[in-house]
Design goal:
Largest sheet: 10 strands, mixed
Mean pLDDT: 94
Number of helices: 11
Shape: globular
Structural class: alpha/beta
Radius of gyration: 22 Å
Strand order of the largest sheet: 17-16-15-14-18-23-25-26-27-28
Low-confidence stretches: 242-247
């Protein structure tokens, strides 16, 4: 590997990353690396170590929110950033490995992805813009929907991680460590697989990725089993707020929202849970409804957090938290996870937000000049045609309004929200009426909600208690 190489890396969070390969790149001091990856690691592991050592000059990723080192470098104009919706990234990897030059996708229509102009690189003053993203070609098809043309990706090196390899080069992945690895593997000139163990032969029906795609294999000299967010189910939850809302800390508000969000689920439903408040629904739903919970990191059938001592470093949700597997669960690669969304095989998606507009727009991926998170899979989720439920705290830090006439930060999606659940109430979007307050928290009044809500909304004549 030479300086300036374009390198694709598998993994989601710290799960399934080629960690020893990254350490080798640091030891060799490969410079000016351009990386294609779903994530940017953390400050002290994975790609984050390369960033900390200033070996990376460009990141092409969907989510970088767990790495303050990267955020600081970007905001100081030290590194370029090309944000790509997560499902689009997975598909561009997949078609790149399949000899398909481009594909039309819906994610990003009406946003910076379509128009271009997102600041890829800032000046050293952190304010001027020296490089911007390009616009995408848009086309309407017979279904009446508009799509953006996205090109297949190709890199110099693909670095992936698998659980097993055999002497024929076949690979087998473990649990949610599959994620982006199969998609990242096929589109590189040289595909390098780091594996936990090498066996003589993997039974054919257990092969997840055939050896014809793989050029190099090495056994991990050390398996680290890093866990980004360790969560347990047997940790005593915080008490719920009383009727007057006393003790209403951030955690209590979030739990109230999650408790209400569970009521949106029905038996037999397939529902995607995004990061933040949504993933906590998996812990609240148990025993209440028989729904399959899907994670964009490659799992259908998420269970609650594990009991202490039963955590598995290869088993996480989209928020990188440790989880368990529900009965009838399955694991899949990232492109299949988003194929489920785009193909309308999910009934509902639940995600958080920074802002919501009175016309049903959502903005949840960046605050220009302040916070760089990334859209992750949100742009794919809000355009997939399933019901979109947004869960968020009604008021932001310092009393800032979040439910607005118009979003003031870059959009994730336009006119896509079906239901908004906050700690103060439930709002349903009606085509001709806009948002209607249908449920209200026991410790809130309509007047209080109006005080903290610049957005227009009406009040249902049949207003119910949210937490009854």
């Amino acid at each position: 590997m030479k300086d300036g190489a374009l390198v694709g890396m598998g993994g989601f969070g710290l799960v399934g990353i080629p960690e020893n390969g990254v350490l080798a790149m640091i030891e060799k001091q490969v410079k000016n690396i351009r990386i294609v990856s779903n994530i940017a690691g953390t400050s002290d592991w994975g790609i984050g170590l390369l960033l900390k050592d200033r070996q990376v000059i460009e990141m092409n990723a969907s989510y970088v929110g767990e790495n303050p080192t990267f955020e600081k470098q970007y905001l100081n104009g030290e590194i370029s950033l090309n944000m790509i919706p997560q499902g689009t990234l997975a598909e561009r990897c997949r078609i790149g490995s399949s000899g398909i030059p481009a594909a039309y996708v819906k994610a990003g229509v009406g946003t910076y992805v379509e128009t271009g102009g997102f600041p890829m690189r800032l000046g050293s003053d952190g304010k001027s813009i020296t490089q911007v993203t390009r616009p995408r070609e848009k086309k309407a098809f017979e279904d009446g929907q508009e799509y953006l043309l996205e090109e297949g990706l190709h890199v110099d090196f693909s670095m992936i991680r698998a659980h097993q390899a055999d002497k024929y080069g076949n690979l087998r992945f473990r649990k949610t460590a599959r994620n982006f690895n199969p998609d990242m593997a096929g589109y590189g000139d040289v595909v390098i697989a780091e594996v936990d163990e090498i066996v003589d032969e993997i039974p054919p029906e257990l092969v997840h990725f055939p050896g014809c795609f793989v050029h190099r294999i090495y056994k991990s000299p050390k398996i680290y089993h890093k866990i980004e967010r360790l969560k347990y189910s047997d940790v005593k939850p915080a008490p719920k707020p009383d009727a007057k809302g006393k003790g209403g800390s951030k955690d209590l508000k979030r739990q109230r929202i999650a408790d209400r969000a569970v009521k949106e689920l029905t038996d037999g439903m397939y529902c995607n849970l995004g990061i933040g408040i949504p993933v906590t629904v998996a812990n609240t739903v148990m025993g209440k409804v028989d729904a399959d919970l899907q994670g964009e990191n490659g799992i259908v059938g998420m269970g609650p957090y594990p009991k202490k001592g039963q955590e598995d470093a290869d088993l996480i949700n989209a928020g990188k938290e440790t989880i368990t597997e529900a009965i009838g669960h399955s694991h899949n690669r990232s492109s299949d996870a988003f194929g489920m969304m785009r193909g309308k095989h999910l009934h509902m998606t639940m995600l958080g937000s920074l802002q919501v507009s009175e016309t049903g727009d959502i903005a949840n991926w960046i605050i220009p000049g302040q916070k760089v998170k990334g859209m992750g899979g949100a742009m794919d989720l809000v355009t997939c045609g399933s019901r979109v439920v947004v869960v968020m705290e009604h008021v932001g830090p310092g009393g800032t309004a979040k439910f607005l006439p118009k979003c003031t930060i870059p959009l994730t999606g336009k006119g896509c929200i079906s239901t908004l659940i906050t700690d103060m109430g439930v709002f349903e979007y009606k085509d001709k009426e806009g948002f209607v307050l249908t449920e209200i928290a026991s410790d809130a009044t309509v007047e209080q909600i109006k005080k903290f809500t610049p957005a227009k909304f009406s009040v249902s004549p049949d207003l119910k208690k949210m937490d009854a």
